[in-house]
Predict the structure of Exodeoxyribonuclease III.
Amino acid sequence: MKIVTYNVNGIKARLPRLIEYLTEAQPDVVCLQELKSSDETFPEAEIRAAGYGAVWHGQKGFNGVAVLAKGVDPVERQRGLAGEPEDEHSRYLECEVFGLVIASIYLPNGNPVPGPKFDYKLRWFERLQARARALLAEERPVILAGDYNVIPNDDDTFSVKAMAADALMQPESRHGYRALLAQGWTDALRTRHPKGGVWTFWDYQAGAWQRDAGFRIDHLLLSPAVADRLAEAGVDKDHRGREKASDHAPTWVRLR
């Protein structure tokens, strides 16, 4: 079973690339982020025509998350995170499909640092940690998949110096991520590529793709009940190099 996280950077603009990916890779589940689409304009018909059911939590112009499943409709469990009722950002969607609990996550970017956007990022991280603890208590096979906007380690970026002032690499951001792992979650990509050097994002600016100047911010965290089923983890990097592609590449795990 192949589970994918894919920040599409605008589902309407990238729809040909998404359908192409679904057709070629035939993943079982895909968690999408940064839909930049309202619920009403989500391209359900095109996705169903490609053979996938979908649940989505949209927001006009930015944010937005979805869970797609091959041949079935995922069952929604929760949208949004508790703890900040005034937060209207569409960043968390949790579903059940194929015996798994899967969440699609789009963590706030947090730039500039310092500032209210970074403060919001850290509060959101704390709310995610609380939900993650509750999910672990269920002792179910759970995958927290998404764009975490965190570069966890120095070898997860092409240049520590270039990213040093960025919210993605601040000590507080890394602490939030490591606090999740300390609960008992397994970083699937790191487990399969322990030496780092695996990128999931390449900026559109400054020829980043051509220079392979990327970093790893898309992560799939596995609960203990599913971590022992991990067979492989990787990045479908070639899809980043296609015409009018997202700046992220599909990142995946394969389960036994």
About this structure: The chain has a mean pLDDT of 98. Residues 209 and 241 are 7 Å apart (CA to CA).
